[in-house]
Amino acid sequence: MSLRRPYLMFLGTAPDQLAAKTAQGIVHWRPDWCLGQLRLPGCKADLGIKDMTIAEAEKAGVKTVIVGVANRGGLLDESWIPGLVEALERGMDLASGLHKRLSDVPALKAAADKLGRQLADVRHPTREFSVGNGKKRRGKRLLAVGTDCSIGKMYTTLALEAEMKRRGLKADFRATGQTGIFIAGDGVSIDAVVSDFVSGAVEWLSPENDADHWDLIEGQGSLFHASYAGVSLGLLHGAQPDALVMCHEPTRAHMRGLPHYKLPDLQACIDANIAAARLTNPNVKLVGFSINTSALDAAASERYLKETAVKFALPAVDPLRTGVGPIVDQLLL
């Protein structure tokens, strides 16, 4: 589906900054597409762009309102509906990456049908997939994995794509989540695929290619997250990765949304991901660490990256602070 631009980022009542990660990702990677944000009372997130009402968005020329919230369960709050209906009435389309379909909300469906507006539910695939077959396919593939969800796997693969293309290498970002799809323009939201077909969907997303071409596959969840490990495992098998990048946030005390589960030890997480990936690629290897050090000051960040690199004898970077050049260097060895 094609979305009309520019966008208004709808944050609703997002309870914290991480709950607005979909909108934040679009603003970071496609700032020219985003004219403003709409926050309802109680919203605790801020994208650092202009606040707008629906009426102001209409005057500014906004064409699509993006529901930019990523919440547990992918639900659409009832309090958001009046504002979204107003956007349709003022000539704008709606797009969302939530599990709850916009088209399943009666008020939105009725308004869109009456007014001829588009309701784009990018999380829901519009095609069917085969089950995975695990057959070796030409080309190279990197998958971002992690100790938790919402930890920087998408940012890492997008940064790798940008750096590799800057060097003239053949590389493409492959989106597996709603935010990545908004940024890339296509992809498959893996967590909305029926479980038997997850690995097959990833095989379809990353088909055979030139021997020197890298597909940079966005990871999802974590093998250690009780809620999302199934998606992570299907990605590992379907991606058939030659290389893994381990993503980590060192200040988290527990898995996101699961205070009774501590974050796994890095070595344990490496071992589990390598073991699972070897089912479809016995030659898979870890090529580095992408560390989200946003909660650390500059000195602490530098120290943690150095300690991790020394401990594991592999590059450790923060995509936003240091860039990902050392990991690209590792891929070219």
Describe this structure in words.
The structure is a single chain. The chain has 333 residues and is α/β, with parallel strands linked by helices. It folds into 2 domains: 7-121, NAD(P)-binding Rossmann-like Domain (Rossmann fold); 140-331, Rossmann fold (3-Layer(aba) Sandwich). It contains 11 helices and 11 strands. The strands form 2 sheets. It has a 6-stranded parallel sheet, with helices on both faces. A 5-stranded parallel sheet has the order 2-1-3-4-5, with helices on both faces. Helix 3 runs parallel beside helix 4 (106-115).
Amino- and carboxy-terminal Cα gap: 39 Å
Q: Indicate the mean pLDDT.
A: 95
The main pleated sheet reads as: 6 strands, parallel
The number of domains is 2
How many β strands by DSSP? 11
CATH C-level name of the largest domain: Alpha Beta
Can you tell me the CATH topology of the largest domain? Rossmann fold
Could you give the topology of this structure?
Elements: E1 7-12, H1 21-29, E2 34-39, H2 54-60, E3 64-67, H3 81-89, E4 93-96, H4 106-115, E5 119-121, E6 140-146, H5 153-166, E7 171-174, H6 178-184, H7 198-205, E8 214-217, H8 229-239, E9 243-248, H9 266-277, E10 285-291, H10 298-312, E11 316-317, H11 325-331
Parallel strand pairs: 1-2, 1-3, 3-4, 4-5, 6-8, 6-9, 7-8, 9-10, 10-11
Helix pairs in contact: 1-6, 3-4, 7-8
Concise account of the structure shown:
This protein is an alpha/beta fold and 333 residues long.
List its salient traits.
alpha/beta, Rossmann fold, six-stranded parallel β-sheet, five-stranded parallel β-sheet, 11 strands, 33% helix, globular
